[in-house]
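Recap quiz, item 2
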Amino acid sequence: MLTKFEVEMNTSIIANDRAIRILKNKGALPLTQLARELGLTNEGARFNLIKLAKEGLVSASAVVTGRGRPKQVWALTGAGHALFPDAHAEVAVKLIEQVKTLFGEEGIRAVISASAQDARLRYQAALGGLQDLEAKVKTLAALRDQEGYMARCEQAEQGYLLIEDHCPICSAAAACQNFCSSELQVFRDVLQADVSRTEHVLGGGRRCAYKIVPLKQ
DNA sequence: TAGTGAATTTGCGGATTCGC
DNA sequence: GCGAATCCGCAAATTCACTA
């Protein structure tokens, strides 16, 4: 049984948590659009955003979009992004450094190769019976979402987009970029499609995105 | 061409309502 | 009673159209 205080805190936390998730998911949004996404009035959304801003989790900037007063666009700060799971970052980076020290680049390549093979087997097991590319991409997106990548599938020109709003291995990938290239190859192998990266967190992007089109016959 | 005011759009803040 | 959310009126910032 929750106390009154806990109920009130939870109500507030739920609205704030949703705002953070929406900003993480969709990127910077003007107040009015964020209010629509939250199902609140502008004032209600602003109320929550001001609280989050006081905690240093979000920040606003004015953007001139045409006639009328400039829009106030809200986005996550570094502290806001840090709320998403990356707790093992330091450990992962240290492990990578130690493998490099003990076994050299060859050792790192072997570790990444084994990790990629493990992922390949897992994804192939889940996608095994699927023939349709759309179903494959959706299933892969669901698996990646479960792994903490906040992944989803969208229809794109001539194919599909696999979008990952969060990278739970960002620090490890920054320490060793072979993670990203092997990941790309795993996607190509399990989807049996032409996969290219269109957005990259490590390249300064807000998220990672992959364009997936059927192989030319 | 520059100045000015109307139009447009959004933000702000106080009062009020609602739910627990 | 308290905090969250809404309502409502006003202020602010910008563009656009008109006029001298």
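DSSP finds eight helices and seven strands in chain A.
Residues 89-127 of chain A form the longest helix (39 residues).
End of item.
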